[in-house]
Amino acid sequence: MFLKSVLYNETRNFCLGKAEPTTNTKKNLFDPEAVFVTDLTDRNEIFKTVSQKLYDLGYVKEDFLGDIIGREDKYPTGISMRPLSRKLPDVAVPHTEGDYVSTQLIVPIALRNSATFNNMVNPTEKLKVKFLFLILNNDPDMHSTILAKIMDFLAGTSVDDLNELFNSDSNEEIYDFLETNFETEK
């Protein structure tokens, strides 16, 4: 499938999860305190706001923000969902080097309005992204595994279910959906 081939070749309104925190293990790639819904539309402002919360939680290090912005400029992470369905909005999977993070986690970020990201496959193409899977990974041997899990999730989830997830305005619903439907086993 196309996504698998991609893998291998005025307000700052952020909703933060209110569910009870869980211990992050290799099996649990999501934390209810690290699920975001925002009105922001500027990529760097999204990164700035999310980075501060992740820093406060102890998940990222001080230089994380600069590195995630620099890496996204150099190596875009936008993914066109058109090959799966023209009914799906585009997504992005931003990530950085393990030196800048303290854990292994996928941070879902739902955007109420699109933000512009460049396409991972065709970096000159601009995509209107509605959902981010921000990867935090302090184990370099696991990076491709986590990315593959995201790609498998996108390719293996129905268009209707993905649209429901991507358009959700509830941190709890996003967290519950991913905890239930995202394959975390190796």
Automatic annotation (TrEMBL):
It comes from the Bacteria. InterPro entries: PTrfase/Anion_transptr, PTS_EIIA_type-2_dom, PTS_SugarTrans_NitroReg. Residues 27-181 form the PTS EIIA type-2 domain. Pfam families: PTS_EIIA_2. This is PTS EIIA type-2 domain-containing protein. It comes from Lactobacillus paragasseri JV-V03.
